[in-house]
Sequence to fold (345 residues):
Amino acid sequence: MTAARNAHSDHVRSLPGRLVFREESISWQGRCLTTGLRYTVRPALHLLTYVFHWPLPTGIVDWLARFVMIPPKGTVRQPVRLNNCGSELVRAKGVAPADGSGRAILYLHGGAFIACGLNTHVRIVSTLSRLADAPVLSVDYRMAPHSPMSDAVQDCVDGYRWLLARGYRPDQIVVAGDSAGGYLTFMVALTLISEGLTPPAGIVAMSPLTELDPAGKLSHPNSRTDPIFTAKCFTALEQIILQANERVLVDGVPGPLVEPTAEDLTKMPPTLIHASAVEGLIYDAELMTERLQAARVPVELKTWAGQVHVFQAAEAFVPEARQSLEEIGEFICEVAVCAELPAAG
Fold:
């Protein structure tokens, strides 16, 4: 390893074991978004929990997003086919092609494992590409109820391998995701470690789901005040995951569900977590931070007052969303090597 690369590794190891920051104020734009979603999306999602076992057209969410989530001007989107799913390579205006010479981001979208996709998250992805000056591979992984979570994890690992085949080293790659995609970010790193491979340079998780059992979330005060999700949403999500998992049988019984908070985290890379202070998934964010801290992994958690779940999707309107993404971009630049480093001497 070169002297420059050693210096980078020493810097990463010197990052604090745990830092918790809080944004106590909220802009009028953030208040408007939170109030609007509380009286529109929240009751709609609650009603859907009663019919989640029906064959709902969940793909329509990503299809409609094509007309709403317009990427910033100059964004380049290139389709990429992985082994079992689609994906796309996204570059903001001015970002160089994915040739292995700079940083790269692997992005895993949220959507409760049943909805959303490349279109719903293209603005977040393009913005991160611009802020980190890096191409982003956004994975359209297989989802429930047709596929178990293990398939989604494998698709995301395939995305990581695609970046490696493109010439990127692990210390040049950061894996980022939101909500259900936050769960997948941790699972990608854990899967790589279990296979004896080098994990990415860092992990970014926005409002991540890290514990599949809803008990902790249901006992948290935010389960009653979350601007988007009711308590029944968390129990319905567990049922969706369990039903999808029944498609994978090991000796005649469904395979085990893996929770990253229960795994050995000692070899995990530096991690940044951003979440709303009033959402139900703050329980998961805090729990994962505690477990990473216990494993002596550099981790930082930042909470934002009054915001909705994955408020970063509203970066065109909410200033806190832009600030969050800017800080995430800074973290990516901090932990990932920018380019091929010259040999010492």
